Amino acid sequence: MEKRFFTIGMAGHIDHGKTSLTKALTNVDTDRLKEEKERQISIELGFAPLYEDNEIQISVIDVPGHERFIRQMIAGVAGIDLVVLVVAADEGVMPQTREHLDILGFLGIKNGIVAISKMDRVEEEFIELVKDDIMEELQGTVFENAPFMLVDSLSKKGIDELKEMIISTLKEQEMRDARGAFRLPIDQVFTVKGQGTVVRGTVYEGAVEEGQALMIMPKGIEVRARQLQVHHKPAQKAYAGQRAAINLSGVTKEDLERGDVLVSSEHFIVSKTLDVAIRVVEDLDHMVKQRMPIKLHIGTAEVMGRIVFFDRNELKEESGEILCQLRLEEEVLTKRGDRFILRRPSPQETIGGGWVIDPRGNKYRFGNETIEELEKKKAGKPKERIAAALYEAKSLGFNELIKRTALDSETLAGELEDESFLLYNGKEYTLLQLVDSIEEDMYDRLQDYHQQYPMKQGLNKAELLQSMNKSFPRALLDFVVENAIGKGDFKRNGQFVSHAGFAPHVPKNWQKRAENLADELKKDGLQVKYLADYFSVAGIPDALAGDLERFLEETGQVVPLDGQYYYHGEIFDKAVQTLKENTGSEFEVGAAKDALGLSRKYMIPFLERLDAKGLTKRVDNKRVWQK
């Protein structure tokens, strides 16, 4: 069985014992900052390993509870698979707990366990009463059906039972997608003496390995993963669901910040305009108005922007989803389905949260027509959802499409029979429109190359693919080239690709000089000068000489003896024929000199060229004709 990786979060009100409970479960004190020790509150996210066997690995995030540290709290829970909601038996559900519950709901956290902490502070006969009060407060939240555990971190009562429940719950749960492109929202950046820049975060999806080339988005900084650690232990690879620290080369600590995202592919979308579906909290203190400033928390990023409605100008109470748009001051990396939280910058409060319908939002008119379009986007008919997934990823396998579209295999298989989708390599799907678009782009690149280098056979295939592989998967690019060759739109000459109708040629304004050069070379027969002298006499500049030399050689108009002397193609062929007629099946250098009347400075390079062409083979001091 493939090993699975999960991260759980401890959430709840300040002083309800989250950090103590984490320590009791893991034997790790996650309060690591001096201020945290002094004030006995969690300011930054704390991490610890909880459990590992051959089947599963579980990490814990201790999320700050104080309302001033809500940003860190959101950054923490955004990447977790299960939440332990810690409620102190002697205080019950507090205002901060309710805000955490709202945030957990908006972020789509479905799995939870309620841990009633500090149970030794409450008389035994009151425990059930406390439990009933908490259950009543949790009605209508993601925790209304969550199991309850009674624990005390100091006496260790219930700790083993809680740990067993966490493990058994996660063993029944699917892990995050480890097969897609790697994505890690960064929540910590620091330096290690002698090592350089290190980033830490929870792997949202995909996997990363030591030495892998990566990209910091949305900044677009290319980096490399020098070393990986999972819970302070070196690792060759880190998977979706794991907490990972990655030592990066190619970047300094000052270049990075919490909210940046480390990815393995440029296929993720960077955008400032998001079409979204949101829900608002039940007890908003202030009206949400059209184009009001908002603070968006997505992944570990915190970005200012404005909310734009298309069917209202203000909002106070609403139980259902509202379709609207977020226009941000800075770019964020996101994709359809990503969850987020919206907060009011001043006075500070959580407004609501939701999910991204389309990270490539456009400008729309106010009115029902726009809402209807957003509804279609939100619902996403099967074909549209497949097309959207392929448009984003460019190329996906069948199983990956099931995950990205949330379609069952039978429905997906039926939709993929549509002619707008194309199966290539026997396992990957893409859009026919995308293939046509890539081929058109390649055609234009080849056209530019042919105009710039008309004497070359074409563009090296590897260079053509390299110029586009930041935008498209290499396998897809390779398919498009081979498909175009198969259709007769492109042609191949060795490793070079060109338009089907293209033939290398001397530019029109240099044709006469090139002809004069060839004539002079032919006129000199076997007693030629340096080729550079012919270029000079013909008035051909150095910038053109290299391409012209290669063109004349590839078209057989000249034959190199060495790097300096060249024979005209016809002269070379006649010399070969003369030598054959005046020698037997084998010959020595002296016989060749007699037959052609050449001095040693021409004779030796000439014979070596015969060997290189496979016309002769040197055996001791003789040459044997091969053809």
Automatic annotation (TrEMBL):
GO biological process: selenocysteine incorporation
Location relative to the cell: Cytoplasm
Primary subcellular site in the record, as a coarse category: cytoplasm
Pfam families: Beta-barrel_SelB, GTP_EFTU, GTP_EFTU_D2, WHD_2nd_SelB, WHD_3rd_SelB
Gene Ontology MF terms: GTP binding; GTPase activity; RNA binding; translation elongation factor activity
Key words of the record: Cytoplasm, Elongation factor, GTP-binding, Nucleotide-binding, Protein biosynthesis
Keyword Nucleotide-binding carried by entry: yes
Domain Tr-type G: 3-174
GO CC annotations on file: cytosol
The keyword Protein biosynthesis belongs to this UniProt entry's keyword annotation: yes
Functional note: Translation factor necessary for the incorporation of selenocysteine into proteins. It probably replaces EF-Tu for the insertion of selenocysteine directed by the UGA codon. SelB binds GTP and GDP.
Name of this protein: Selenocysteine-specific elongation factor
